[in-house]
Amino acid sequence: SEPHVRAILAALERNQSTTQLWVMLSETVLRDVPPPQRVAQSANILKPLAERAREIGCHVALYNHGGWFGDVENQVQIIQCLERDQVYNVGIVYNMHHGHGDLEQFDEVLTKIKPYLYALNLNGMRADGPKILPLGQGDEDLRLMKSIRQSGYAGPIGILDHRPEVDAAAALQENLAGLEELNARLRQEVTE
User: Fold this and answer.
1) What is the DSSP string of 57-114?
2) Along the chain (192 residues), what's the average pLDDT of each consecutive run of 10 residues?
3) What is the dihedral of CA 25, 31, 32, 35, to 10 degrees?
4) How far is it, in rounded angstroms, from Cα 27 to Cα 71?
5) Which of 6, 9, 60, 175 is least enclosed by beta carbons within 10 angstroms?
6) How far apart are CA 38 and CA 30, in angstroms?
7) What is the enclosing helix (H) or strand (E) of 189?
8) DSSP H or E run through 120
9) H or E stretch including 117?
10) Contact call for residues 88 and 46 (beta carbons, < 8 A)
């Protein structure tokens, strides 16, 4: 494993910290691997990390950052491959800002990943972009929030700040205001 990964795991162990390790595999790692073998190869690469993480009480969450590895269909297959090897501490962190390709079939995607979903990060969503948008400013936000609620997902929900031109505190407040507005609209629909 990489020196920086070993250092992170050692620091977590030394400090008795348990957390989720959000990981991606570089496209260059799998570039020369034929597509039918990528799931098994990815599982082989991730297995030592997952096993070491398990030893110190941590979980590994596959990050949907695009490309072959970031495709949630492939991530589910990788997790299932690891489970066949008795590795059960690997799941998915799903980031809405990387889910524009999933908008039309979001309900199906959410159903498929829900058993493996460790965290769900919200973002304002418009079918035509931009990729990063404050929550509540997308024309898909209310529909997606309804889908999440109806799915029964009850795990961690986060908001990421990917706008370096905006102060992080201001971006968080903007996203929280959008979330409150969406929640108010959802509550109103329930009472109607």
Assistant:
1) T-EEEEE--SHHHH-HHHHHHHHHHHHHTT---EEEEEEGGG-GGGSTTHHHHHHHHG
2) 90 96 93 94 97 98 94 97 98 96 96 98 94 95 96 94 90 95 91 74
3) 80
4) 12
5) 6
6) 7
7) helix 168-191
8) strand 117-122
9) strand 117-122
10) no
